[in-house]
């Protein structure tokens, strides 16, 4: 059942990794046949010298052959090892076949989906002891519609998904790895709720559902979401231990549906959002609200050019205890705000080594954020708190080479902002 999502904003004016084929087969060459030995003759001095020279040449050649064979064997073993990690243990050519093979797969199995476009909804279920993978067949381009995931230890890898990926209540140990996701009501949605969480939405007759636990969302590309009635790129509800790392978000555009690159509702504990790249959007880049949360790490992310429209708000983090905001480069024209609004605990945050255009700590309602803050660079002098002695302000930070996608700061002896280069990143499938 789809449950109510988040509600109001803080401000009334909303300012590739694919499977590889089986290892190469090698064939041994012919061994040859025995030849009759020639008649024995008494060797001459010339013959002895010639034989010695030939023996030396043969020994050198043999040694070279041994070294070459050893090197070739080593390379072949490495190649076969990497291929074995993604070798298909089963194959499917339809959504029904893929669902069946995933349900029946042994722990560690890899189901490869043949090249093609598959319309309709793919439903994956089953609880496994170890990960079971559904991926594009080697060198195949595979496009699907909506995917619904229930159960545990299920992996989606290297797919082009034209529709949302919905995780059902109680799903656990789910991995979304290097997929391209667009075109759905949401990109990824956690389809659960818990209206008993402090500050969560409530309605008549609501009851808590099972949380969604141990999810990794890594290396995916989310794009062209927010128009035509769609909402968020990633919508988290009632979560536990979620890692979102190394993803790209572009053209996530607000169109009146409260579109966010990431939104959290109904709270949770244990969220890591790190090394993500958001650009050319009109979204709230990171939005936690409508449910108290604990143990959130927001680190090493790059947000730039969030001005494709003029509706979506700046990133906001409401009511979190043990929040870490470190080494981010938030130079998107909007910035980041912390909001404390009648949290069930005293919110706490550690803010350091960030480059942020505008950073605000909103006037609290109830217990305020207790903040430890140092070694940041701000685009504007903060007005809502007293900056530490180690902070600086500049409207024109010097990047190594922004034109080539390198937004690391030049002359950065304090390690402020991101420490990675866009040129070294890969998002979405390889085919």
Keywords:
mainly beta; 20-stranded parallel β-sheet; 2 helices
Descriptive notes:
The chain has 431 residues and is mainly beta. The chain has a domain at 163-424. Helices cover 12% and strands 36% of the residues. It contains 2 helices and 34 strands. It has helices spanning 45-84, 95-104; strands at residues 90-92, 110-113, 116-118, 122-124, 127-136, 142-144, 147-149, 152-157, 160-162, 165-168, 172-177, 180-182, 188-191, 212-218, 221-225, 234-245, 248-252, 262-274, 277-279, 287-288, 293-299, 302-304, 315-318, 320-326, 329-331, 336-339, 348-352, 355-356, 359-361, 370-374, 377-378, 392-393, 399-401, 406-409. It has a 20-stranded parallel sheet that branches. A 12-stranded parallel sheet has the order 3-6-9-12-15-17-19-22-25-28-31-32, with no helix packed on it. The longest helix has 40 residues, at 45-84. It is globular, with a radius of gyration of 29 Å. 41% of the residues are buried. Residues 8-85 have low confidence and may be disordered.
Task: Describe this structure in a few short sentences.
It is built from two helices and 34 strands. The longest helix is centred in the first third of the chain and has 40 residues, at 45-84. The protein has a 20-stranded parallel beta sheet that branches. Strands 3-6-9-12-15-17-19-22-25-28-31-32 form a twelve-stranded parallel beta sheet, with no helix packed on it.
